[in-house]
Fold these 2 entries.
Entry 1:
Amino acid sequence: MTNPPHVDGIEISPTGALPAELPHTSQPVGLWSDVWRRFRDNKLAVAGLVFVFLLILVAIFADVIAPYSITERDSSQFRSGPSSDHWFGTDLIGRDVFSRVVYGSRVSLRIGIVSTLIAMVIGVFLGAFAGFVGRWPGALVMRITDIFLSVPYIVLAIAIATVFGRSENSVIVVLGLTGWLGVCRIVRASFMQLNNMEYVEAAHALGFRGRRIMFRHMLPNSLQPIIVYGTIAIGSAILAEAALSFLQVGPQDPTPAWGLMVSQGKGDLANAPHLVLFPGLAISLTVLAFVLVGDGLRDALDPKLKTR
Amino acid sequence: MTGPVLEARDLVKEFPIRGGVFARTVAKVSAVDGVNISLGEAETLGLVGESGCGKSTTGRLLLHLLTPTSGTVEFEGVALDSLSKSEMVELRQRMQIVFQDPYASLNPRRTVGETLSEPLKVHRKMNSKDSMVRVRELLSVVGLSPEHANRYPHEFSGGQRQRVGIARALVLDPKVIVLDEPVSALDVSIQAGVINLLQQLQDELGVGYVFIAHDLSVVRHISNRVAVMYLGHIVEQGGRTDIYDNAKHPYTKALISAVPVADPRRERSRSRIMLEGDVPSPVDPPSGCRFRTRCWKATEICSEVDPPLEDHGGGHLVACHHPE
Amino acid sequence: MSPRAGSEVLLSVKNLVAGFDTGEGRVRAVDNVSFDIRRGEVFSIVGESGSGKSVTAMTILGLLPTVKVDNGEILWRGRDLLKVSDAEMRQIRGAEIAMIFQDPLTALNPVHTVGRQVAEMARIHQNMSKKHAMTRAIDMLDLVGIPEARKRASMYPHEFSGGMRQRAMIAMAITCDPDLLIADEPTTALDVTVQAQVLEVLLDIKDNIDSAIMLITHDLGVVAGLSDNVMVMYAGRQAELGTVDEVFYETSHPYTLGLLRSIPDLEGPFGQPLVPIEGSPPSLIDRPSGCPFHPRCSMARNPGPCTTDIPELVQIGTTAHVSACHFASEVSVAL
């Protein structure tokens, strides 16, 4: 060697004659391309993803897709079934159901995604803290989650709606404040397990501070359950929003929240089933799609399928 | 410098066993029960024993990765428990650890280069360019190719990963490295290369090792001094020849006699000391001398008094009522 | 310890080739392996990870459903195990050939008492009544040196220590008086003092029931102390095969030599550096051409047959000692 390596000015001779080639290994674990390949093979999951994708498109381009506005009334047709003018029919005061369902996607997605984001942030931080620190602070956090568990979100929603009025934001706040429990537990469990990993011990030994270890070393290795949980959480948030809207604690008319539309139409189920059917289908399919994607992600990320 | 680099006195570490609804402490396990260790400059102290003897716990206590229930650890004369958090962070640079499992000891989501350069960025405030120069040097030093700095751990073999672990321990120029079973998980033909590397690094960098292992042949090869542990106690301690050629504690003798040697004729002509039974549970250790339940020399005093470590000459310490 | 001259050949493996499919291609885990085991013999298969030693053993008993045998015969007392029916194989497993695994904690069922698991062997294979089977189980536990066997029989595996569990597994294996015990790394997970005990038990049992032992291990010390015959495997192929003295003292394969030189000696002089084998074990998917060991071999000739021709087994001297090296005769000189 022409220029032997130095450490602290001391010349080091290369040790042994270890050839530097890397051994052949099987495909790296958890690389996103691999995850995507496995996900792609799962037809249901792909179907769910396609639906979610379409839904987002619908929400973005609602102005173009919906033929009518959400308040426009057709005075000639009240509570009429599907027709060529009104694909999903009209509601009690003549508004086009199809357009309202289309615009409703914005409501659902906005509430679902934002509230889930809030819940995830709270849950991940608290869970990471509880799992990493452990002992009494961790136990304290878990007791707090237990307390929150005992509060049904519906009651909380009613309370907040009464005090602060009905709106999309009040729903987002409620769902955000009650939805963090699940991910908190998951992250805590994951961090507790990671605490025992030797590379985490090594980080301690190298004198890294807690924050760095938690967020740069442990969190990236906890991503998988978090992503799966988050995806499914969006679905359940949308379902919860639908429930709250149905109970008339969510956004008010004329906001085309799907749950609210179902609530408004339920009185006429016998004569005008389309008023319940179409928003109801929208809710079901959307929630199902998110759950399928989440399940598919979990299978694609499943450690049991990984090779060394 | 005078005095040992690392010194531990009367180290005790108890682990609580919790039970009941409120997770109260029901019993205590004394994993380490009154251990004294001293490590000189550029020296290797081998710490041997079987499962449950407390050697891994001792290793972590020495680095303050675990806080002792009682006892002190001093690094270059400074007591570790007297330091503030930031002082400890500073000091950590000089005492490092290498782990057993080459697969779990590296963060799978970071490249080898990132893992090695991070300590430089955090402690030495180096920028990316300078730290990568140092990283490439280190990889070379441990016998790996510097071009592989941007690869992930799973792309390396077990032996190579262990070398990365050693490089990580070297990054901040430590004075002492605790190695916890560093070669046990490697294939036999790979172990030799890593052991040679460790010896070479010690010769060239003057770093001291606390070498924790259960493989007596490896420990004999690499250590200057050896301490034998049993159920949280050091039962015998001394130089290499003291322990291997001149063992005085019955457990040490039994341990050495149990190690199989790759020489059929010697194996056939050996007479082995067979111990009765298994290692007792550390939750409820025997009274008096902990080894007495398996010792062929045990007498009444052994069940009443726990023998202290006594110097049999030249630093050869033995804790036995009936040493050879 | 040596088998009586002319004793019966129990197992004869001929040209066994077996492999399995992975996501990236076919892996040939066992590549043209042949050996015999006689009654009363201890036959050791030595190798490191990826050598194929465990797969060989598991294939004999047909315990790996994903492994496909491409070629060869496994003759057990004259019958080819690769051709017998599933029912016949089940009969042979446990009753004629028994296996002892590395980790007794996972090999024993945690929800059944130890006694019951040992007795189960007698009940299934020998159709014994519950009472007789339990008596037999207690006898077996006693035979392997478990104190207070009657009391221990009603305890659960987690109440046993590692050494005791391994003894219990041996008891289970010998309940039906098998003719061959396959022990796959039986002491690797045990402390060294316990290992010595368990190996002693194995030898006693072998003499007691007049069976043979196939010992699979990576520990050359254990091999030296126990074996009559040794087979060294590398990358699925046989590297060397002979009596234990021949393999250790008349080493004729560079890999065996490399292994012997890389282990620290408990009694040798201080200060001599170990001699490692360079490189890493080969990938079984991306095999090197010619001799699988050549990239790491200090004696490999390039250009030469090492890189192009897979070496056949050549006889060393006049005995059954063979080695798969193009330059086998030169290895002993290097010692």
Entry 2:
Amino acid sequence: MAIHMNQECLLSVENLKTYFFTRSGVVKAVDGVTFSVHPGEALGIAGESGSGKSITCLSLVRLVPQPAGRIVGGKILFQGEDLLTKKEDEIRDLRGKTIAMILQDPLTSLNPVYTIGNQVGEAFRLNGDKKRETIRKKVINILNQVKIPSAERRLNDYPFQFSGGMRQRVLAATGIARKPKLLIADEPTTSLDVTIQDQFLRLLKELQQQTQMSLILVTHDLGIVAETCDRVAVMYAGKIVEIGSVERVYQAPAHPYTNALMKALPKLGRKNRRLYQIEGEPPNLHDLPSGCSFHPRCPTVMDICREEYPPEVPVSGGGAAACWLLVKGRS
Amino acid sequence: MQKSRSSGRIRLMHRWLKTGGNLKRLPIAGICFLMPIVICGIFGFLFYPHPPTEMNLGHSLRPPAMLPGGEWSHFLGTDHMGRDLLSRLIEGARVSLIVSIVGVGLAGLLGVSLGMIAGYFGGSIDNIIMRIVDMMMSIPPILMAILLAASLGGGMTTITLSIMVIFWTAYARVIRGETLSIKQRDFVTLAVVTGCGRLRILMKHIFPNLVNTAVVLATLQLGRAIITEASITFLGLGLQPPASAWGLIISEGRMYLSTAWWIPTFAGLAIMMTVLGSNITGDWLRDVLDPKLKRI
């Protein structure tokens, strides 16, 4: 992953650690995550529940749930500046303007007491627009961009008058309103049904290409990643186990976990076989297994896996993975 | 835009009227109790049968009109100074309403602001504010009123202040709790990631969602405030004698209870009507406004 660390990166995260200090001990939700995003690139972060993908994203905008959660180490370089050393005010200036975020649940993410037009307009007001008429025009414009039908008329509707898919598109509109350089979408489609999901992802992709912004898409759905992203990072128990271009990771997964995930995907045209299943359960973050966190479930486990966490090894075809198999294979 | 906005509102209103559910449940009893009091409070000075402070010792302690010895010119009888009881009650309504509404309003202003600050910022600010609330709640309200009256002297301003000091704590507690839950909601997170500052989030995103709760609380507290006002005046710490307040009328009439039972009784009834009316209306308002109880 160190390969990607150069000046051209829009965002480069180095060894990010976000821990939760709870009564039952320290939970290492994000434990040494390193990745980078180039301008105009779409990075997918995939992983099962509790693998730390959402917390990674929240750390990027410094919104880790307080007071239990804390970023304890690492660097988040955005356009060359470390976000972790910035003051709260400076971060607030960045939020929305250069780094925007779309949240998971469109049904609860809009304030029930304001009209849609008012809420989307807030982004422009924060941007310094004062005239009602200009704001209104911009709002209509952006709602058209996210394909809200007859935007002009629906401007004065309240969130409850919108369907889930439309609300998610309204959220996307608030996200892209100030033309951010980076859009973080945290499972934006989990609460939408499949057809609407597809529609929304297409829209997201389209917006991304139009505005040349970078996109970080967090999801547990590998299909979504394949459809939308250029590169993918697979997380397991707070660490990135594999990262690489979508084609490479999907065709030749290097890490046993990624491999198992790919095998577990149902494929069109292949009939009847029982789906592949990864043995065991996701690890308990309070009490992680020694060495590689995946070793109790790994089909190719070796002795060293139980003792030490594997280093990251570049994979042929681009990207990297953290697995002892690859180290052994090389030596 | 103007046109579409109004048509949208009309559409919503029409739908609301058509369902009719809310209308049917209008608190008839509450309105019946409250309306006369409110009308007396606002317009009473236009239809006093007699000026409320006009004394006529020759007519003192007359019973209500329907009892033997009563006169129709003094419908509810007179007190020991020969003042017309009905006129004094009408005048008392004004005092009670002004004191309780202003007092509860000020209490709401203070309590809602402090509750929001405590809930939103948390940490030591929260601790300090809530401990002050605990402290205030541990002081008996009447004692507090006595302290205030002793330091500021009696009068309407003092009672209004006492009511504010006694009642803001309830707001602070409830609003803090609400703020705590609202600030966890996604739209607040969205406001943060959109780049809103703290003040903007508090005023624009959290406060409008608290208004319902605050309004319901205010109506429910109105009744208690009227009782508090009457008790303070009854103890002689509020309005002073020539004035007409319900508490004062009861206090003065207490001496003549055995011979002129109507003086404290009618004043007591007036208090009861107001409190009952505002409680019923408050309950209704809660049912209508509280989204958790609301029928869809």
